Each structure stands twice: as structure tokens, then as C-alpha cells.
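Forum > Structural Biology > Help requests

Title: Can anyone predict the 3D structure of Amino acid/amide ABC transporter ATP-binding protein 2 (HAAT family)?

Hi all, first post here. I have the sequence for Amino acid/amide ABC transporter ATP-binding protein 2 (HAAT family) but no way to get a structure on my laptop. I'd be grateful if someone could post the C-alpha cells.
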Amino acid sequence: MSEPAPQKAPILRIEGACTNIAQYHILQGVDLEVPAGAVTMLLGRNGVGKTTTLRTIMGLWRAHRGRITFDGQEITALPTPAISRAGIGFVPEDMGIFSDLTVEENMTLAAASGPLDSARLDWIFAAFPPLKTFWKKEAGTLSGGQKQMLAIARAMAEERKLYLIDEPTKGLAPAIIATMAGALRDLKAQGASILLVEQNFGVARMLGDTCAVMDDGRTVWTGAMADLADDTSLQERLMGLSMETA
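Reply #1:
Sure, ran it for you. C-alpha cells for Amino acid/amide ABC transporter ATP-binding protein 2 (HAAT family) below:
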């Protein structure tokens, strides 16, 4: 009998991360691993610390305890620009686009290391056709779904090892959600790793390989996304509702 293929080391590991914001103890012990080349879903009810976890990884909020390791390097105390240069792209929940600049100018700024790669830009246009249509338009004139496409495309402007994406489908129409999901599948197929905060359980089930569930600033469950998707009682115990009814 042949031996099973060895699993890749996690590209991101968080160990006992605690983050305070002013007098509030937001993260109170987050343990999380993101396998290389996989989509990891970060799930949980509103206000449990999912966004804070992403912002702590990026160094936007500083963990006062614990350890964060990315691609074999500890990044816990690194400044945000250094974390970005190490190969992490971040799409915040508020999108972070520049409304007064054109789509082209937003994308050009996102490619910090040099001019936009034409082949990569063609791939982005194939994933998000409206961005090509409105290339010379100010980003503030785009629809909500088109702005979200631009926000994700900005993170994709350069090849990254890991993408942190915060609720990309929130408030979007089903057709736009399907476009987003297809782009993220393509990104994974290119070998990227993704940590995705998502409230849409259909999207989580479709895209997720692994999953971590948070509650009250802590990770309370980790495992295969399929295991959580197939266990209604576990969903209700961890999150208070079933994926079938969400």
C-alpha cells in the first residue's frame, strides 16, 4: 500500500492571537491554519472577531499576545507595508477603492512593484468584464457589485501567495455573487491561498476546503468545510443556525 501524499505546511499559522482595541478585548485566543493552495473559510456570527482577525494578520491592528507566521516567517510585529510585500493581498469589507480615481488609476496604484502585467490584466478582465468596459471611468460611478469587483481585482493586480478577503458577496445580487465565486475559484487554481470571511453559506460551501468557526473572539472549531456543511447539528451548535435555512 502506498503512503498518502504528505500535506503541505500551512502558509499561514496563527497561534493564540489576542488583540485589544482601546479598552475592548476583541480577540481572546485565535488559533488558525491556512493550508497552502486552499480556500479557508472564516465563519461565525456578527461581532465575533472575524474582521479583527484579518486586520491583525495585516498588522493594521496589533496582536498584543500570540504569534502569526506567514510562509515560514514570523510577521506578528511587522508593519503593514512589509506584510503586504511579503505576499499578502487584503480586500477589506469597505472595499478600500479610491472613488475619485478611474478604474485604471486604481489598478495602477495597486501594482506597487511596477507596471500592470498585460497577461494578468487580461485574466482580470476575463474574470470581471465590467472593469474593462469602465476602465476610464471614475470608480465612484460604478455600481456596488462593480466596486466589489474592482476591490478584489486590486488585490489580484499582482500575484500574491495569500489573499485575505472580507465578506466579498455582502449585499450583492446572485449573478454578481456567481461572478465573484468564479474568479476566486480561478485564483485558487493558479495556486493561491485564500482566507475568506463570508456570511453566505452557499458560497462558503461552494468554495471552502477548510473552515474555522469563531465565537467571542476565539476559534471554537476547525476542520474540513465539507464536514461542517454536512452536519446541521454542528452548524446550529457553533453558529446558532443551519446552512440549509441561512
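Residues 1-6 have pLDDT under 50 and may be disordered. Strands lie at 10-21, 24-35, 39-43, 65-70, 73-74, 88-91, 162-166, 193-197, 210-215, 218-224.
Shout if anything looks off.
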